[in-house]
Write a structure and sequence with these properties.
By secondary structure, this protein is of the alpha+beta class. About 30% of the residues lie in helices and about 35% in strands. Strands 8, 9, 10, 11, 12, 13 and 14 form a 7-stranded antiparallel sheet that branches. It folds into 2 domains: about 80 residues, Phosphorylase Kinase, domain 1 (2-Layer Sandwich); about 150 residues, D-amino Acid Aminotransferase, Chain A, domain 1 (2-Layer Sandwich). It is globular and about 50 Å long. The protein is built from 6 helices and 14 strands. The structure holds thymidine-5'-phosphate and aspartic acid. Aspartic acid (ASP) binds next to β4.
Length: about 230
């Protein structure tokens, strides 16, 4: 049973339940980009992101990555383990795109010789600045042991998802994940894995099948979300 709303983010709401260790996440159709500057609606996104995230988290659990997923309640709502979010956006990149292309002058689509792991400090007022392990330890955002585990899980997520998605005709260009800490201090995968938080390119045509269609006004945003959903969920 949903109790009071604890938090409303740009794409999700979080509710308390009777169990202090359990929360309910409710996915919205609202879309934002550029730190909330651009606003819109992607019809059906809430249901797609909820169901896709749950499907992929279940698979990742089987691969040995602990996640916050408990059970799907309906199309847009899911019960998750309560965590304190580690205030880092963990970004994994296989192919140059987006902010990495801009920063380093690498054309979008350049295959990276080695997978790149980046961290951003989750702070909207600061625009989520990139940080390295020194900043993370200096600010006590995570301990060395926690960051080791986060990096290990991020690589496991990348290895599993890249392979699985390619079988669905999708290239995993890059993605952002977040981790949380349960009340006993265990680090688990939280947040979502969806076209909002990943770059998905059609393996044959290179067509963008993710939120870049919204960010860059490429059109057919809903169509791209539906296509990815169909390919992954069958
Ligand atoms: P970037 O190239 O803009 O830094 O984005 C890297 C990846 O992170 C990309 O898959 C989109 C995702 N992302 C988010 O999930 N949330 C964000 O706020 C941003 C900026 C990117
Ligand atoms: N979700 C982020 C925002 O609204 C940015 C993004 O996904 O591009 O700012």
């Amino acid at each position: 049973m949903k109790k009071e709303m604890l938090y409303e983010g740009k794409a999700k709401k979080v509710y308390a339940t009777e169990d202090p260790e359990v929360l309910i996440v409710s996915y919205k159709d609202d879309a934002t980009a550029f730190n909330g500057l651009k606003k819109g609606t992607i019809v059906g996104k809430g249901a797609i992101n909820n169901r896709m995230t749950n499907y992929l988290m279940k698979k990742l659990e089987e691969e040995g990555v602990p996640t916050h997923f408990i059970r799907e309640l309906n199309d847009t709502e899911t019960e998750v383990k309560k965590v304190t979010i580690v205030p880092l956006e963990v970004i994994v990149r296989n192919i140059a795109a987006g902010s990495l292309s801009k920063r380093l002058g690498l054309p979008e689509g350049t295959k990276l010789k080695k997978t790149v792991l980046e961290y951003s400090y989750k702070d909207d007022a600061l625009g989520d600045p990139m940080v390295n392990d020194y900043h993370i330890f200096a600010m006590d955002l995570a301990t060395p042991e926690e960051l080791n585990l986060i990096a290990k899980y991020a690589n496991m997520v990348n290895d599993y998802l890249s392979k699985f998605l390619l079988e669905c005709g999708i290239v995993l260009v890059d993605f952002k994940i977040e981790f949380g800490k349960t009340s006993d201090g265990t680090i688990i995968l939280a947040d979502e894995i969806s076209p909002d938080t990943c770059r998905f390119w059609d393996a044959k045509t290179g067509e963008k099948l993710d939120k870049d269609r919204f960010r860059r006004d490429l059109g057919n945003v809903e169509g791209a979300y539906a296509e990815v959903f169909k390919r992954i969920m069958g």
